[in-house]
Every structure is written in C-alpha cells, then in structure tokens.
Automatic annotation (TrEMBL):
Transmembrane portions of the chain: 12-36, 56-77, 84-108, 217-243
Assigned protein family: Belongs to the tetraspanin (TM4SF) family.
Species: Vidua chalybeata (Village indigobird)
Entry keyword set: Glycoprotein, Membrane, Transmembrane, Transmembrane helix
PANTHER family recorded: TETRASPANIN, TETRASPANIN-18
Name the record gives this protein: Tetraspanin
SUPFAM superfamilies linked to this entry: Tetraspanin (SSF48652)
Gene3D superfamilies: Tetraspanin
Location in or out of the cell: Membrane
Bilayer disposition of the protein: Multi-pass membrane protein
Length: 247
C-alpha cells in the first residue's frame, strides 16, 4: 500500500512539474516576444527602463521555471532526493517572490488611475522631444494605439510649458491620424490636424483605448498567476512528501 502511494505521488509530482515546465516555456516565449516584437510594442518597452527591465525579469523567471520544471520531473521519475530538495528550495523562493510581487501590485494599484496618468502627463510631457524618455514613450503609445493624451486632446490644452506656433493648436503631432500606426507611417493630413481639424486627429484618450485592449489579458494573466501559484504550492507539497517517502 505504501509503495502504491509513493508511486502515485511520484506521478502526480511529475504531472505538476510538467505544468510548471509548460508555464515557464510560456513566460519565456512571452518575454522573447516583448523584446523582439516588430509591431511597435518593443519601442514602447525599450523607451521605458522600468518596462525594459520587467521584460528581462519575465524572461529570467520563465527560464528558471522552465529549468525547475525539468529538474522536478527528473527528480520525481528517478526518485533522486538531492534533485527533489534542490527543486523544493528554489520553487519556494520563486513562490515567495511571486507572492510578494502580487501583494505589492495590489497595494500600489491606485497609482495606475486615470487621474495619476493625467497629472504625470501634464507635468512631464515635452511634445516632440524624443531625447526625453517620458515624452518619447507617450508619443510611441499614442502612435501605436491611435489615441491622444490620457482622456483626449484636451489634456494638452493647459500644459503651459508646451511650445507651438500661433497657427497650431496644442495637440502634438503624435495625435494626428496616420495611414499606418507606427512612427514610419505617413500622416493623413498633418497640417490640418495641427490646425485643429478634428477629423484628422485621434480623439479618443489612451487610458480607455489601452484599458479596453488589455482588459481581457489582465484577467487572463491574473487567472494564470493564481493557477501557477497553486501548482507551485502543490508541487512543493508533493516534493516534500516524495522526499520523505524515498528510502
């Protein structure tokens, strides 16, 4: 009976680690996609050091989970106590790190409000100054998502430090409609856009556009994160039980 339980635990351990292996492969693939994606998302990430660092952290976490899943599978099938102990310690560290990150994200979620982004835009935005990381990032976002400001073009009307000629409105050229949504895309009518003709402008705010674009993915990512944490917890329990059961 004890041998049957140990055998069952061994295969369950293998199954859980196989899912960790797949999760690591998905994170690894996602991290690679964010870094090499040619559609414009890479430009936004590269312009922001924090996002750029986050992409590499995702890549590293994916590689680590990929490796640990592989080691856990080998340790379970071969009943190797050293591999099982190594797996348990590292999966515990990853579990605690992910749990801490989730708690911090929940605590600081209020910093991602519409009002926060509007305040930051009005305070730091410098129009077409591509040497400024903040402005370059915002321009990339507005071009890629065909949007303007946080709430709309009106966000730029009371930014006093913006410089523009008397013939132009406060709207930056990043808010002008393009035939292709990239920096290389041709303007539909740049002069008319800057003069304030609305049909040549992107009028919708970026906050709504991005929220609508990523809403499904946010819930999917949250569900995936909860699933990964649950799998890791069960994997640790089975690893320790299997470690204690091996003679």
């Amino acid at each position: 009976m004890e041998g049957d339980c140990l055998s069952c635990m061994k295969y369950l351990m293998f199954l859980f680690n196989f899912f960790i292996f797949l999760g690591g492969a998905c994170l690894l693939g996602l991290g690679i996609w964010v870094i090499v994606d040619p559609t414009g998302f890479r430009e936004i990430v590269a312009a922001n050091p924090l996002l750029f660092t986050g992409a590499y952290i995702m890549l590293a976490m994916g590689a680590m989970l990929f490796l640990l899943g592989f080691l856990g599978c080998c340790g379970a099938i071969r009943e190797n106590k050293c591999l099982l102990l190594f797996f348990f310690m590292f999966i515990l560290l990853i579990f605690l790190a992910e749990l801490s990150a989730a708690i911090l994200a929940f605590i600081f979620r209020e910093n991602l409000t519409r009002e926060f982004f509007t305040k930051e835009l009005k305070k730091h935005y410098q129009r077409n100054n591509d040497t400024d990381v903040f402005s370059s990032t915002w321009n990339s976002v507005m071009i890629t998502f065909a949007c303007c400001g946080v709430n709309g073009p009106e966000d730029f009307e009371d930014i006093r430090h913006l410089s523009y000629s008397s013939l132009e409105k406060a709207i930056p050229e990043a808010c002008c409609q393009r035939e292709l949504q990239s920096r290389e895309g041709m303007f539909v009518n740049k002069e008319a856009c800057l003069e304030g003709i609305e049909r040549f402008q992107n009028r919708q705010g970026c906050y709504t556009v991005i929220l609508n674009s990523f809403e499904t993915y946010v819930y999917l990512a949250g569900a995936l994160a909860i699933g990964v944490l649950a799998i890791e917890l069960f994997a640790m329990i089975f690893a320790m039980c299997l470690f204690r059961g091996i003679q």
